[in-house]
Amino acid sequence: MGSKIIFLGLIAVSCYVASAADPSPLQDFCVADQNSTDPKVVEANDFFFTGLHLRGNTSNRFGLRPTPVTVAQVPGLNTLGISIFRVDFAPFGVTPPHTHPRASEVVLVLKGQLEVGFVASNPENRPITKVIGMGDMLAIPFGLTHFQRNIRNGTAVILAVFNSQTPGIILMANSVFGSKPDISNDVLQKAFQVDQNVISQLQNQF
């Protein structure tokens, strides 16, 4: 069964490689570096990563731990338009609502059962969710707010494949209530239609 799941994971990766293309820009901003790597000194380790078989420590407030494999970990991914994450979930662990500003995503379940969903922009604010288990996958369109939730009293593992070497992540609550300096209370009060004290409490948590 394990080899079958790995095979499915390789299919998912190969499908993305076949049509990989990074959207522009690759990151929030990019300051040019005139020093380029000489191809003569490139080696296999520039394209290599080990550790996706290791379980991540999920003892945190969300109950999950991502193991990223992006261009930051594997320099050889530069310009290839692909990256991959292993994400471990504790029982009932949650990936809170977030977006990836530079990538679409395919979620492949290696272990457990999760509710995976995203919110469509057309029709406006329509949630699309599905419970998926081992060997199942769900595609998450570019830029849409989405989440994953382990629905079982046991650990879960997913493989998340992105069509960007640097997909990025914006956690909704963190970006709104945890920005430094703070976003104006007047803006947040009008946006969320709540009392200023509620806004202050939320900002204090982040």
From TrEMBL:
PROSITE patterns: GERMIN (PS00725), PROKAR_LIPOPROTEIN (PS51257)
TM ranges: none
SUPFAM superfamilies per record: RmlC-like cupins
Origin: domain of life: Eukaryota
Keyword Protein transport recorded: no
One Gene Ontology CC term in the entry: apoplast
Binding site for oxalate: H100, E105
First and last residue of the signal peptide: 1-20
Residue positions binding Mn(2+): H98, H100, E105, H146
Pfam families associated with the record: Cupin_1
Residue span(s) of domain Cupin type-1: 50-200
GO molecular function, one term: manganese ion binding
SMART domains linked: Cupin_1
Record has Manganese as a keyword: yes
UniProt-listed InterPro entries: Cupin_1 (IPR006045), Germin (IPR001929), Germin_Mn-BS (IPR019780), RmlC-like_jellyroll (IPR014710), RmlC_Cupin_sf (IPR011051)
Cell location: Secreted, Extracellular space, Apoplast
Keywords recorded for this protein, A-Z: Apoplast, Disulfide bond, Manganese, Metal-binding, Secreted, Signal
Family, similarity comment: Belongs to the germin family.
Protein known as: Germin-like protein
